[in-house]
Design a protein that fits this description.
The complex is a heterodimer of chains A (272) and B (301). Chain A has helices spanning 5-30, 33-53, 57-76, 81-102, 107-115, 123-142, 144-152, 154-159, 164-186, 188-205, 209-234, 238-268. By secondary structure, chain A is mostly helical. Chain A has a domain at 5-192: ABC transporter involved in vitamin B12 uptake, BtuC (Orthogonal Bundle). The longest helix of chain A has 31 residues, at 238-268. Chain A is globular, with a radius of gyration of 19 Å. The model of chain A has no long low-confidence stretch (mean pLDDT 84). Chain B is mainly alpha-helical and 301 residues long. Chain B has one domain (2-297): ABC transporter involved in vitamin B12 uptake, BtuC (Orthogonal Bundle), CATH 1.10.3470.10. Chain B is built from 13 helices and no strands. In chain B, α7 (141-167) packs across α9 and α9 (179-220) packs across α11 (261-275). The chains are: A mainly alpha (272), B mainly alpha (301). At the A-B interface, α2, α4, α5, α10 and α12 of A face α3, α5, α6, α9 and α11 of B.
Chain lengths: 272, 301
């Protein structure tokens, strides 16, 4: 379970979980969960295009995820963000359908792009993932304060001269960067579940940003580690375990938060 | 002249007839339901339900039940869970949608894996996303149309209270409208219409037909009824034109196997939406005082 090829899997999955935990925290905080779904899934069209042109899939993924981020941010300027995201997303996938219809041997590859091939990570793929993960985390740390402010209190941020629009674009670009490298390894689906479930769970457990972000990373790590171990034993797809565990963590922390609130009000009421 | 637009044999082809009929019903239902989806800011839920419905289909296929019940059960179940854990604020709702979608897609991975273990259907993941309009069997058409009309009827009957509770939940509640129940009923109707259309035309096209025409109509018209009519018209036009173009494209380069319907329909719909951007900004600000942008008005804070 920890030997040879599996070692690559563990390293890559750990890096992905850290990236997903950090970016997911902001995705949940900003309410851009739809974008978190749209960018990885839509980027898949880019991989189809790249295979058509005989390029490396990474090039296609990078181009399309950045184009998706620009499209969402651009359309959001004058329409509702969810509408902008939906339309950008369907346009990317529509182009993807066209690319796929042109090529002949793409259908099998589509499965692995959507659902990932975690157990077939090559040694050469590990380093780019780690480097890219570090880059996107450094980017988030650099813009942590303005991003935090514009996510939590957009009006205050605007008053302080932080452009909400520019922050949105910057954040979407970081998400696109994180996505383009992780999708070929873990799949669009897994990346999405790993970004949303743990972050949402962490956020209902605590309101303190740094603690919530740390918790989000921790839960993402636990989810992916348990997922890999169980998936290795049972041969069932990792995506299933990550999706199920993420939802379970979320429901558990919602229940915990509700119980704690009830306890707090009960202990307060006799005093009042 | 007409022969250049419609390839020979277009009107005689059986699959084309079915595609046109089913496409029309789906386009109208999606557009009308979509006006409320856009107004309520539930685009993500609309898309998520499409994905989850298809998951149910593959699950039903695994245990040997009629796929129709799989779509319906998963769509309705997911809608119920979203409603249960959903919070009033839009951000919270999107997170709830995201968590449910994550779990649903995980199940999809499992079902596909279990399914491909026994039968080699490599294209399964593909149908999940894109569907195929030309492979509708005529036996599923009546049941599909019935459920679509049922969803449409629910939304039309609820239209007034739904609109009020979408625009200002507080006023609706003050007037005695059961806001939460109306929202739940609407989400069910959305689940049914979206899950069914996703099966036939794929999750991509289903989302496009749900959001695109409605968002375009809300930008160019005033008032919900007119928006619904315009949206339905746009949706039907895009679907028909898409089918015609897909049929025409059979001999187009590079593959000479035809371009996909979903590409044409999506391009037409997104194109329509982008055209509304061409209206100069100055004009909109001038009229803003008396007739503000409908899309903005319709957004509940």
């Amino acid at each position: 379970m920890f030997s040879g090829l599996m070692l690559n899997t563990w390293i890559a999955a750990t890096a992905v979980a850290v990236i997903a935990g950090v970016t997911g925290f902001f995705a949940v905080l900003r309410g851009s969960t739809f974008a978190a779904h749209a960018i990885p899934n839509g980027a898949f069209a880019g991989a189809a295009g790249a295979s058509l042109l005989g390029l490396n899939a990474f090039v296609g993924l990078a181009v399309f995820s950045v184009a998706g981020a620009l499209g969402i941010a651009g359309l959001s300027r004058r329409s509702r963000p969810d509408v902008a995201t939906a339309l950008t997303f369907v346009m990317m996938l529509g182009i993807g359908a066209l690319f796929v219809s042109w090529s002949t041997e793409y259908a099998q590859e589509a499965y692995s792009l959507l659902f990932g091939e975690v157990f077939g990570v090559a040694a050469g793929e590990v380093l780019p993932i780690v480097v890219l993960g570090a880059t996107s985390i450094v980017a988030i740390i650099v813009m942590f304060r303005p991003l935090m402010l514009s996510s939590a209190m957009p009006e205050v941020a605007e008053a302080r001269g932080i452009s909400t629009r520019r922050m949105e674009l910057a954040f979407l670009l970081v998400m696109a960067l994180a996505t383009s490298m992780t999708v070929p390894v873990v799949g669009a689906l897994l990346m999405f579940s790993l970004m949303i479930g743990p972050a949402a769970a962490a956020r209902s457990l605590t309101a303190r940003p740094i603690l919530a972000m740390t918790l989000s990373v921790a839960i993402a790590l636990i989810t992916v580690w348990i997922g890999i171990a169980v998936s290795y034993q049972s041969n069932w797809p990792l995506g299933f375990f990550v999706g199920a565990l993420g939802a379970a963590f979320y429901l558990f922390s919602r229940a915990y938060a509700a119980a704690r609130r009830r306890l707090a009000t009960r202990s307060l009421s006799p005093a009042a | 002249m007409l022969r250049y637009i419609f390839e020979p044999g277009f009107f005689g082809s059986g699959p084309v007839h079915v595609a046109l009929a089913v496409g029309t019903v789906i386009a109208i239902t999606s557009a009308v339901v979509g006006v409320f989806t856009v107004t309520r800011g539930q685009s993500f839920a609309g898309h998520a339900l499409a994905d989850i419905g298809t998951t149910g289909g593959s699950g039903a296929f695994l245990i040997g039940v009629n796929q129709f019940w799989g779509y319906l059960a998963f769509g309705a179940g997911a809608a119920a869970i979203m409603e249960l854990i959903g919070i009033q604020r839009r951000r919270g709702r999107d997170v709830a949608t995201g968590v449910v979608l994550g779990a649903g897609l995980g199940l999809a991975a499992l079902f596909l894996y279990l399914g491909t273990q026994y039968s080699s259907t490599t294209g399964a993941s593909f149908t999940l996303l894109f569907g195929s309009m030309f492979v509708i069997t005529s036996s599923t058409v009546p049941i599909l149309i019935t459920s679509a009309l049922l969803a449409l009827a629910t939304v039309v009957v609820l239209a007034r209270v739904l609109l009020l509770s979408s625009l200002s939940p507080d006023i609706a509640a003050a007037r005695g409208v059961p806001v939460r129940a109306v929202g739940a009923a609407y989400l069910m109707a959305l689940a049914v219409s979206v899950a069914l259309s996703a099966v036939i035309i794929g999750a991509v096209l289903s989302t496009a037909l749900l959001i695109g025409p409605a968002a375009t109509a809300l930008r160019v018209t005033k008032g919900p009824v007119r928006a619904m009519l315009v949206a339905a018209g746009l949706g039907v036009a895009a679907t028909w034109l898409g089918i015609v173009l897909a049929y025409d494209s059979f001999y187009w380069p590079p593959a000479r196997r035809g371009w996909p319907v979903s590409f044409f329909v999506v391009t037409l719909i997104v194109g329509c939406y982008l055209v509304t951007y061409l209206r100069p900004r100055r004009d909109r600000q001038d009229v803003a005082r008396e007739a503000p942008d409908t899309e903005q008005v319709c957004s509940p804070a």
